[in-house]
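thread from #wetlab-drylab

HS: before we spend reagent money on co-crystallization trials with NAP, can we at least see a predicted complex? here's what I'd submit
DV: go for it
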Amino acid sequence: MNFIPAPLEGKVAIVTGGSRGIGAVIAETLARHGCTHIAITYNSNKAQAEVTEKKIASINSKIKTFTLKTDVCDAECGRYTVEESLKGLGVDHIDIMVSCAALAVFSTFQTADAMTKEHWDTMMTADAWTPFALARESAKVMPEGGRIILISAAASRGANGDPWIAYSASKAAMESVCRNLAAIYGITKTDVTVNSISVGAIHSEVLQHAFDT
Ligand SMILES: NC(=O)c1ccc[n+]([C@@H]2O[C@H](COP(=O)([O-])OP(=O)(O)OC[C@H]3O[C@@H](n4cnc5c(N)ncnc54)[C@H](OP(=O)(O)O)[C@@H]3O)[C@@H](O)[C@H]2O)c1
């Protein structure tokens, strides 16, 4: 009999926003491809994080999972997520870090005219600083072959109109973070890559919410 080896056999992963939507599918896909340790984060929906955990267990009951409540608006989120994931999974390194959680709820976005500095700063913290901090803290404990993936949005490059300006700008900043970290780690680390995936419209709860608003 021929076996196709799982390409991610034995790998340790963090997926932020792994409780629902795109993050949950990424976590399940990593499980299917052989990851043995997977940490997922959520913000308020613990029950949904447990659903993802159960789906991972149904793929392979030997996979160790850990769920963590975080808030991407908290400036310490990146450091906290990596530190707690290492402890929760009982490991000393992270092979794959996917930053997927974001502030992306359309109804909370402000128009250009109404934009407050507070809202702008919150969006930049959540969708640019936190992905940067997650990448940097993961890179500190990432062995050769490590992968950092930042989930962006096609909105980062569009002329989207109201009320997308702060979300689009924060995702554009995140993409710049990605390119710069790729250049930095390309020199200072061995075989650690940094990529962002620019997502188009995907039918998740956040998109349905935008349609309903
Ligand atoms: N769906 C699309 O069409 C689309 C398009 C372009 C880009 N994207 C990007 O893709 C990523 C995932 O989007 P999605 O559609 O899968 O979203 P989603 O279904 O709404 O899932 C969002 C995830 O992020 C978590 N989250 C929400 N607010 C958070 C906060 N303040 N702190 C920490 N975690 C938080 C949620 O946790 P809870 O379950 O606890 O709420 C959940 O795990 C985002 O980066 C988004 O910008 C999506």
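DV: Residues 115 and 166 are 8 Å apart (CA to CA).
HS: ok that's useful, forwarding to the group
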